[in-house]
Specification:
Elements lengths: L3 E2 L8 H9 L10 E8 L3 E9 L10 H5 L2 E3 L2 E5 L5 E4 L1 H14 L7 H14 L12 E10 L12 E10 L10 E5 L17 H16 L4 E5 L7 E4 L3 E6 L4 E4 L8 H12 L4 E4 L3 H10 L2 E8 L3 E10 L2 E3 L6 H14 L10 E3 L2
Parallel strand pairs: 1-3, 9-10, 9-16, 13-14
Antiparallel strand pairs: 2-3, 2-8, 4-7, 5-6, 5-7, 6-18, 7-8, 10-11, 12-13, 12-15, 15-16, 16-17
The structure holds pyridoxal-5'-phosphate (PLP) and 2-OXO-4-methylpentanoic acid.
The site of pyridoxal-5'-phosphate has 12 residues, from helix 6.
Amino acid sequence: MQISTTLSSDLTSDERLAEILANPGFGLHFTDHMFLVEWTPETGWANARIEPYGPLSLDPATAVLHYAQEIFEGMKAYEHADGSVWSFRPEENAARMVRSSQRLALPELPVDDFVQAVDALVEVDRRWVPDATGEKSLYLRPFMIATEKFLGVRPSQHVTFLVIASPAGSYFKGGIKPVSLWLTENYTRAGRGGMGAAKTGGNYASSLVAQQQATSQGCDQVVFLDGQEGTYVEELGGMNMYFVFDDGTIVTPQTGTILEGITRASVIELAGKLGHHVVERRISIDEWRDGVTSGRITEIFACGTAAVITPVGSLKWDGGEVPAPASTVLTMQVRQALVDVQFGRAEDTFGWMHRIC
Ligand code: PLP
Ligand code: COI
């Protein structure tokens, strides 16, 4: 892919950038540039470019604004001690975006083009990659939107893929502490044949009212059950889940309707290396409640790119509550093993890291 670059004539000053990078928060500040490439059936992917970051001009009839034909990815670039910059398994994000595009009837962006686009933006905005203190990173948000001006309901004949970037600190205010969960029993995030396995904006829109409930109940995050039986644990609004049992076995839900995370897949391998048996299977909400109460479940954690690995605390529902599991030892061990690879402090035995610059 040929990428043309127009540099911003209004770069963020060194002083302002230092201020932002000292305390970036999550998703608040954006780098000086963005990547774009456009697709039509006639041209395929064309006009790949890096431009100054700025608002898009969209016709009010643009398809994505009406029918939510949209997909996105979330990944990070990390600075290592020698000043080099790396991403984590970017081809997995690219492959998931291909799967999402198949579900949303969007054109497929080749894996190599996806990785090249992300790399090119990070290189141009290299000075926005925070140093590794406090596990800061540059959060990358590739996304694809239906940009045809047309109100008929059919796959858009003009599509735009973009990448934007945002320096990130901890996803949760207050750093690593157990997240409390609210079990929603009246909302689900996915159904059979639905979009649960795709990373598409609509899934997040549908999670918001449940998240609102969680917040009003004093909980940090919401946990969803399967849509068919309302019995099996799926995931949180933006994270996958793991359960550690007292015999050392680790279980992560497998239902066919969850967003299968790249962190989730990596934990399977890392925990295996740490000597644990990881099982992907269905796990019911009663097994969770009973397991914590009896002590059979010793730890629960959630994982995702933005949140990394976070211990799960208490679970509350309409009419009851179970406390946090007893331990967070393995959770913190797996977390450390993961971030050590990401920040280049441990040998990358799986070949997960991709050097950008
Ligand atoms: N599940 C949902 C709904 C998510 O939004 C995310 C975040 O990306 C994940 C799981 C975790 O996926 P990953 O580890 O690839 O970030
Ligand atoms: C991520 O972890 O990258 C996510 O997409 C979760 C959330 C910020 C949407």
